[in-house]
UniProtKB/TrEMBL annotation:
GO terms for molecular function: protein-cysteine S-palmitoyltransferase activity. This is S-acyltransferase. The chain crosses the membrane at residues 21-41, 53-76, 217-239. The keyword Transmembrane helix applies. It catalyses: L-cysteinyl-[protein] + hexadecanoyl-CoA = S-hexadecanoyl-L-cysteinyl-[protein] + CoA. It comes from Stephania yunnanensis. Belongs to the DHHC palmitoyltransferase family. Residues 131-257 form the Palmitoyltransferase DHHC domain. One of its GO terms (cellular component) is membrane. The lineage of its organism: Eukaryota, Viridiplantae, Streptophyta, Embryophyta, Tracheophyta. Its EC number is 2.3.1.225.
Length: 339
């Protein structure tokens, strides 16, 4: 029994080490696909078409303008995901005590230690068990609500969603918005490229004479296939994460709450999305109706100038606790049931 446990720990350690090593390779892969796409779309196809005159030049100008706008936002969002700390537990963090209830968030699953500790109003730990305080045995520290330990990063991450090898980073409270925008702009960009190069792809299966050198045709064909594959896969992730935002949950919490009939952080679709965005356009109202305004605020903030860029206003960061990853609104009725 002990031997198998040791072997399992060793295997997990090796797996986490492999993921860390794979990170830089994945970044190079992403940049490689972008460079290939840029060469196929801009250099060999629509760039030269700018000088054809007539409708071809107009179409080429439109495609190139839209492509470069999306490319800038994609790269901005991507490197924001890579370079932004997803959120770690502050040193000597202690949960804020509820004056009326005198308790904090409940322990869940394997997040708590065997001998749980209690936090007195004075802020001093005692030996009395309190099953509402979450504790990480690996980091040897208390855990804020919705915080989980990442074995790859080797630390607890605030509102951890998952560890993503594509960005060599965890997706957590402080970069989740950037990750959603990365998915959105990646899907938009790859869809645009797929549609723009679809005629070249279809030419391979027709009897028409195909213009261009074999190298140009092969590059266009490969760029089409890669972008189509990314568009379809990213669409699945985008739909999944929109549904997660609608339920005010993360990927990890979605598995955890399968055993929980009611999710305490689910404030309703409109209020849920308000925690991430606060949109007032027609498109925004449709989105808010599906997800919820309050959830939008929790991810995107309230300043609509910042909704679709990987950044927050200073006012939102100061006023919205959820954007700092330490406090989240929950249903009062469910909190009362937990007493």
């Amino acid at each position: 029994m002990h031997r198998s446990g040791a072997v399992m720990s060793l295997n997990v350690f090796k797996f986490c080490t492999a993921l860390r090593s794979l990170g830089s390779v994945m970044i190079l892969l992403v940049l490689g696909v972008i460079c290939l796409t840029y060469y196929a779309l801009v250099i060999t196809n629509f760039g030269p078409a700018l000088f054809d005159g007539g409708l071809n030049s107009v179409v080429a100008l439109f495609v190139l303008f839209l492509f470069h706008c999306l490319l800038v936002m994609l790269l901005w969002s991507y490197f924001s995901c890579v370079l932004t700390d997803p959120g770690g537990v502050p040193v000597n963090w202690r949960p804020e005590m509820d004056e009326e209830r005198g308790e904090t968030d409940p322990l869940t699953g394997s997040d708590f230690s065997v001998s749980a500790v209690a936090l007195q109003p004075s802020g001093v730990l005692s030996d009395q068990p309190n099953q509402r305080i979450r504790y990480c045995r690996k980091c040897n520290q208390l855990k804020p609500p919705r915080c989980h330990h990442c074995s790859v990063c080797g630390r607890c991450i605030l509102k951890m969603d998952h560890h993503c090898v594509w960005i060599v980073n965890c997706v957590g409270a402080l970069n989740y918005k950037y990750f959603l925008l990365f998915l959105l702009y990646t899907f938009s960009e790859t869809t645009l490229v797929t549609l723009s190069l679809s005629s070249h792809f279809l030419s391979f299966f027709s009897d028409e004479e195909i213009p261009g050198t074999p190298g140009v045709l092969a590059t266009s064909f490969l760029a089409f296939v890669l972008n189509l594959a990314f568009a379809l896969s990213v669409l699945g992730f985008l739909i999944m994460h929109i549904s997660l935002v609608a339920g005010n949950t993360t990927t990890i919490e979605a598995y955890e709450k399968k055993t929980t009939p009611k999710w305490r952080y689910d404030l309703g679709r409109r209020r849920n999305f308000e925690q991430h965005f606060k949109l007032h356009t027609a498109l925004t109202e449709i989105l808010l109706a599906f997800v919820g305004v309050e959830l939008v605020h929790q991810v995107f903030g309230t300043d609509k100038k910042y909704w679709f860029i990987p950044a927050y206003s200073e006012d939102d960061l100061r006023r919205i606790p959820a954007l700092q990853g330490l406090q989240y609104p929950s249903k009062p009725d469910l909190d009362a049931q937990e007493l």
